[in-house]
Amino acid sequence: VSDTIRYLSLHDNKYIRYFPGHTKRVVALSMSPVDDTFISGSLDKTIRLWDLRSPNCQGLMHLQGKPVCSFDPEGLIFAAGVNSEMVKLYDLRSFDKGPFATFKMQYDRTCEWTGLKFSNDGKLILISTNGGFIRLIDAFKGAILHTFGGYNNSKAVTLEASFTPDSQFIMIGSEDGKIHVWNGESGMKVAVLDGKHTGPITCLQFNPKFMTFASACSNMAFWLPTIDD
Predict the structure, then answer these.
(1) Which family does it belong to (predicted)?
(2) Cα–Cα distance between 168 and 185 in angstroms, integer?
(3) How far apart are CA 153 and CA 171, in angstroms?
(4) Which of 79, 94, 129, 192 has its CA 20 to 30 A from that of 100?
(5) What is the DSSP letter of 76?
(6) What pTM does this model have?
């Protein structure tokens, strides 16, 4: 209704708190893995820092363009992707002093960044785009390690890419309902899985503890490993 973020209790299906402040659509949301803080990024070109216990924003950053953002697995730093061409790393305790590292990439006119995720070991950052490729970069140096492509995304859909929990593999859905999996170290494609999805797979999440994951278009599929006889 008003680009306000809502905090929903699944237990009784009620909103516990509203977080007003953004003036345009929220396009990025990341919960701290260690405490009650979260960050949000919006098309109003701001990133806001919040505490679940307070409706007021705890910190505000103005950017030059559309943001994507994410906490690292330790909850100590967060990364902001700005203008689809640079990644800025901020220390949570002193983010008002500005980023402690900035990695500039080559701007690609054909697409924009739609997501940013850290691997569980904190060493890698995965940048999703609404084009036909995703990028894997070194979280410390910012060097591009691999660019993964070869999946279908002709209509500029926001497809969610994911790491496996051991940080070894990267996977993304495609608009033709298939899931592509790469080895993050070698950059080689290791599998293409057919989930019989009817539309673009816009969500893909790996279970943090077990060898299962879920993929969704307008319907949802749960995946289990098979052990060949």
Answers:
(1) Belongs to the WD repeat SWD2 family.
(2) 7
(3) 14
(4) 129
(5) S
(6) 0.88
Degrees to nearest 5, angle at CA 8 with 60 and 25:
45
d(CA 163, CA 166): 8
| Nearest of 82, 58, 56 to residue 69 by alpha carbon | 82
Q: How close are the terminal C-alpha atoms of the chain, in Å?
A: 53
**pLDDT (tens digit per residue) in 118-159:** 999 999 999 999 888 899 999 999 999 999 988 888 888 888
What is the DSSP code (8-state) at residue 95? Answer: G
Count helices and strands in the chain by DSSP H and E runs = 0, 21
Domains belonging to the chain, first-starting first, are 1-107 (2.130.10.10)
What is the DSSP annotation of 31-68?
E-SSSSEEEEEETTTEEEEEETT-SS-SEEEE-SS-EE
The angle at the Cα of 193, spanning 190 to 196, to the nearest 5 degrees, equals: 170
Name the residue with tokens 């070109």.
45
Could you give the C-alpha distances from 185 to 147, 159, 166, 207, 220, in angstroms and in order?
12, 22, 12, 21, 29
